[in-house]
Amino acid sequence: MYGHSCCASFDGRFCVREKEKYEQRVDDELGEVDEDELDLDVSWKMLDVARAIVEKQPEDTIEKVNILAALGEVSMEREDIETSLNDYLKALSILKHLVESDNRRVVELNFRICLVLEVGSKVQEAIPYCEEAISLCHSRLGRLKELEDLQQAMVNPKSIFSEVKEDGCFQVYLWVKEFS
């Protein structure tokens, strides 16, 4: 009738059958969004209960850090910037007392704090956390390089001895030993 073989009536934009399919798709998509929000709410509530349990324990643990970091992530997904930031800051504060300063988790938390601040339009406050993450990465790379060199020396000890022998410090050591 109107050039549409799918239905008998036309409302100017969609034929009735296509319009119903479109409305069903929109309803389904909205249902998925609501389901996702529900999942985030349930996750946040469960993690909040876990936080309440571990905060009753006087000692700081990696478990507490993991829970706070997960809460920070869920809060970020829920677009609750302040809660996310507070949870990440608490997690970082605890973690710094539990691991080496250049631990990858410290780097990760600094980076996540930087992201939260950036999303919250606090770019100037984010910069130090980004710089700290980069600095810690450089430190970690240097330490890993030293460990790699040490491992290589254990595999081939003669090569490291020849390097040390050429070093002026070794010459000073021999000189001191000779006169002691």
CATH architecture name of the domain at 58-179: Alpha Horseshoe
CATH class of the domain at 58-179: Mainly Alpha
Rg result = 30 Å
Q: Specify the CATH homologous superfamily of the domain at 58-179.
A: Tetratricopeptide repeat domain
Overall 3D geometry?
A: elongated
Class by SSE composition: mainly alpha
Helix content: over 70%
Keywords: Repeat, TPR repeat
GO biological process, one term: DNA replication-dependent chromatin assembly
GO molecular function: histone binding
InterPro entries: NASP-like, TPR-like_helical_dom_sf
Fill in the keyword field for this structure.
single chain; TPR-like_helical_dom_sf; 180 residues; Serine Threonine Protein Phosphatase 5, Tetratricopeptide repeat; mainly alpha; disordered N terminus
